[in-house]
Amino acid sequence: MSAPFRILTVCTGNICRSPAAEYLLRRALGPGVTVASAGTAALVDRPVDPPMADRLRADGLSTDGFHARYLVPALIEGADLVLAMTREHRAEVVTAVPRALGRTFTLTEYAALLDQWSEGGRPRPFYTIRVPDRLAEFTVAAARRRGTVRFADPGDYDVPDPFRAAEVVYDEAFRRISAAVDTVAAGLHAAGSAPREAGSPGSAGGRGASAATRPGAPVVPAPSAEAPWVEPGRPAPGPQESRARGLRRLFGRHRP
């Protein structure tokens, strides 16, 4: 069995945004992908901030057993993809480990790049089948396409920090994270693969929809805390949600 594709999510305290992205990505992407998180100024050993934990619980995810930790170079080196919550976090990751530039993006940037990955005006089909392989395939393409995404509002690159803020800010942060995760999952869970060179097997396929579990689903057990990259059990997928709906949520103007 091949090694898992490893994603690291990064925010400041590692108790609000990056854990939310960690839990949502882990559920949405499934087997073969491991997700961990860390903070540039982590509140070490703290659990997920209660207001964010409540939102994750309402979405069917338990954060029991979570402990915040510092972002250190070894975590960056060990990740195949780093998804930062803001441009500032992205810069801190690349400053710590410059060679991580090609695999470090903000979460919303990565989602938009995947959504706009097109060929002849249509979503570009993948050459690979498994989600971990598609992540590896697209991350290489995303590094080449980094400058092609331009948000009308530069703030859309970032997920706002809700810590000790009003409930509406927690709502907006959770909305942006979950919408970006839905968009990523929708693109990666597409059926089919891209046409190969002449004489090679393969067929074209379109983008599918996310299989993320929606609110009301059973609570998922907390991930194992004994090792950063241990993949926990995955719940059965719930109802699918279209990528278009995820994009409307991601780029909607519901400002706090």
UniProtKB/TrEMBL annotation:
GO MF terms held by the record: protein tyrosine phosphatase activity
Composition skew (Basic residues), residue ranges: 245-256
Disordered: annotated segments: 192-256
UniProt-listed Gene3D superfamilies: 3.40.50.2300
Composition bias, Low complexity: 192-201, 209-232
Key words, A-Z: Hydrolase, Protein phosphatase
Coiled-coil residue spans: none
Keyword Hydrolase: yes
Protein's UniProt keywords contain Hydrolase: yes
Pfam families: LMWPc
Domain Phosphotyrosine protein phosphatase I residue range list: 5-191
Family label: Belongs to the low molecular weight phosphotyrosine protein phosphatase family.
Protein name: Phosphotyrosine protein phosphatase I domain-containing protein
Organism: bioreactor metagenome
Lineage of producing organism: unclassified sequences, metagenomes, ecological metagenomes
